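ok new one. same drill as before - structure tokens go in, u give me an amino acid for every spot. 171 of them this time. try not to just spam alanines like last time pls lmao
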């Protein structure tokens, strides 16, 4: 079983969908932001504040090398900028969770812990800038993905089923 690598913009539901896949399969899931936070013993927000984004991107590269060399049969959810690591495709089957920017914002705002979701993501502090980032990244996400899943208006269960069917077929 190859790894599954979930990519996509902040707030699109990578973590929630990963947790749903775990419920419906034998996959064990890990998350690149969680790995970085435990390795650094501080939150992503703090790392951005104290060290800046470039340092954070270096940490992502280190995690990517470790994933490529040491992790198999695993579902990997990633931070929204992780797709830029050079060895992404060597880590596993890359699955893009795709949705329009407005739908992603709606999803974040409808979440019971919306405030917290926004607070912990430094790149969502300025919505104009976030939209620009989305527009810049979307074609890059599409270009690197092996599989694109449109998650708009779909339940977690539907998304999870779609992804598992896709990887079964490709196995
Ligand atoms: C980032 C997304 C975040 C986190 C960091 C940077 C990005 O992860 O890695 O704040 O560049 O899009 P989520 O996509 O889980 O919010």
């Amino acid at each position: 079983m190859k790894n599954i690598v979930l990519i996509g913009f902040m707030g699109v539901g990578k973590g929630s969908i990963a947790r749903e896949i775990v419920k419906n399969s034998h996959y064990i899931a890990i998350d690149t932001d969680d790995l970085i936070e435990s390795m650094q013993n501080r939150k992503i927000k703090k790392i951005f504040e104290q060290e800046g984004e470039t340092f954070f991107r270096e940490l992502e590269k280190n995690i990517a090398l470790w994933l490529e060399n040491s992790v198999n049969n695993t579902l990997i959810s990633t931070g929204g900028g992780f797709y830029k690591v050079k060895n992404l495709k060597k880590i596993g089957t890359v699955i893009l969770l795709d949705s329009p920017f407005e739908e992603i914002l709606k999803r974040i705002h409808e979440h019971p812990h919306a405030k917290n979701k926004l607070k912990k993501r430094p790149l969502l502090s300025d919505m104009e800038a976030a939209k620009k980032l989305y527009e810049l990244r979307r074609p890059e996400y599409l270009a690197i993905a092996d599989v694109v899943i449109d998650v708009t208006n779909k339940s977690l269960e539907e998304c999870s089923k779609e992804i598992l069917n896709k990887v079964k077929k490709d196995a």
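The beta strands are 4-7, 28-31, 74-77, 93-98, 147-150. and btw The mean pLDDT is 95.
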